[in-house]
Automatic annotation (TrEMBL):
<feature type="region of interest" description="Disordered">
    <location>
        <begin position="104"/>
        <end position="124"/>
    </location>
</feature>
<feature type="signal peptide">
    <location>
        <begin position="1"/>
        <end position="20"/>
    </location>
</feature>
<keyword id="KW-0732">Signal</keyword>
<protein>
    <submittedName>
        <fullName>Uncharacterized protein</fullName>
    </submittedName>
</protein>
């Protein structure tokens, strides 16, 4: 009985990971500190977003300020600013803007694997 529960839990975890996309938001910036890297950001997993939609459209959503690229790991991508920010605070602001663009524009992936607009009426 216990092993059956473990097996079912493993199947559910695998099914959830199939539709998850892991996004690294990265803001490059100018830095006068040789010890601290000139990049700031964070990583977040989204269970229902279409990674290909984000890669294809991030430039348009941001007016060319940000770009999204597939990472080496399957189901993972990186979004970064095209031009370095003036300082770390500006880079953090850009990272937050990237996150907002993703959550407001990216298509959701249904359990069947097909995409649909994130907000009804937001796309034609």
């Amino acid at each position: 009985m216990f092993s059956t529960k473990i097996f079912l839990l493993a199947i559910l975890a695998f099914a959830a990971s199939v539709f998850a996309v892991d996004i690294t938001f990265s803001g490059k910036h100018e830095s006068n500190n040789p010890v601290k890297p000139p990049v700031t950001g964070y990583r977040k997993s989204y269970l229902d977003l279409d990674a290909n939609d984000i890669i294809k459209n991030m430039g348009a959503w941001s007016g060319g300020r940000f770009e999204a690229k597939a990472s080496r790991r399957p189901g993972s991508l990186t979004i970064q600013n095209v031009n370095k920010a003036a300082n770390e605070a500006s880079a953090l602001s850009e990272v937050e803007e990237m996150r907002k663009l993703v959550t407001s524009n990216a298509k959701k992936v249904n359990k069947s694997g097909s995409s649909s607009p994130r907000h009804a009426g937001s796309r034609s």
